[in-house]
């Protein structure tokens, strides 16, 4: 790693030996440059994969992953850090395909993507550093390996996944017993599965990636490319503005030459007004930024009275709209049933998620929380 940092600080302009083609050590120097450039490209692709994982864009992730595989085959990419990033990317690839049970990463076809991810995750114990984070992700991989099979309606696959984890990993006995009961009952929406959801797995892995990138920054090429893209974008935007400005001026000059041949004064005045209305006075400020300005000094008393009458009319309209606004209806049996089903599916306290799945006639999460308390006091839940 120290050697890599020293090579990163090399200034190509100061290294004249590398730039001269007649140097006897040209092949050796160029191989060092190739190694540094390859590591920069690997770092850039690694950061790109982490970003695609966070976005959940599977197509872009697979495209970047193929490029990452090709660059990792370089002989110059050797070392613990390079191998570590390769293992992390392999782990992310399996998690991204976690819900696609027909995707195979192992020679054994019965090993599903999340099971293979757990196998690779066991090699990253020292990389995670935080033991609790490592254990949480391990448990989430186990639970989701079973939950995804139940969601697909494959009970036998869920049982085989549970047995595979029992043979290859050590878990608390109560956890395996609970999962066995859930598989037997085929309870896809069990609160335990909801608490260890797939989204929680992704969030926990993302926290691991954030911590890893903070300790191992890999954004040198990313920052350089961002600066270059910003500068080129600014230049292209400026050139487009200048060309548009010139074309408008040319059109304006042609119209003035044609209008100058006409002798009638009224026609000339109309052409001048048309020229003054062209939007080329200030290309940096769009029309949306220009706010209308009203001078009260120039307004007469009649104008002020009309303005006050308009304001009164608008206030009356607002008051009438407030009066006509409907109040929420009383809770009925169907809404209580929806509330109970939502809590059973998402868990108590997930009011925003329950609102997305059921219709409560305009009620908020706070209203659902209050209604749930009333039902609990009445011993209806």
Written account of the structure:
This protein is mainly α and 381 residues long. 70% of the residues lie in helices and 0% in strands. Among the domains are: 2-221, Telomere repeat-binding factor, dimerisation domain (Serine Threonine Protein Phosphatase 5, Tetratricopeptide repeat), CATH 1.25.40; 333-377, Arc Repressor Mutant, subunit A (Orthogonal Bundle). It starts with a helix and ends with a helix. It has helices spanning 2-8, 16-19, 26-55, 58-72, 80-96, 113-121, 125-128, 131-151, 155-168, 173-185, 191-195, 198-215, 220-260, 265-276, 301-324, 333-346, 351-357, 365-377.
What's this model, at a glance?
Helices cover 70% and strands 0% of the residues. By secondary structure, it is an all-alpha fold.
List keywords for this structure.
381 residues; mainly alpha; Serine Threonine Protein Phosphatase 5, Tetratricopeptide repeat; Arc Repressor Mutant, subunit A; 18 helices; flat
User: What is the approximate shape?
Assistant: flat
Order of helices and strands: HHHHHHHHHHHHHHHHHH
- Low-confidence stretches are 1-24, 266-298
Termini gap? 59 Å
Number of helices: 18
Mean pLDDT reading:
76
The structure class reads mainly alpha
Beta strand %: under 5%
Radius of gyration: 33 Å
Helical content, roughly? over 70%
Strand and helix map with partners:
Layout: H1 2-8, H2 16-19, H3 26-55, H4 58-72, H5 80-96, H6 113-121, H7 125-128, H8 131-151, H9 155-168, H10 173-185, H11 191-195, H12 198-215, H13 220-260, H14 265-276, H15 301-324, H16 333-346, H17 351-357, H18 365-377
Helix pairs in contact: 3-4, 3-5, 3-12, 4-5, 5-6, 6-8, 8-9, 8-12, 9-10, 13-14, 16-17, 17-18
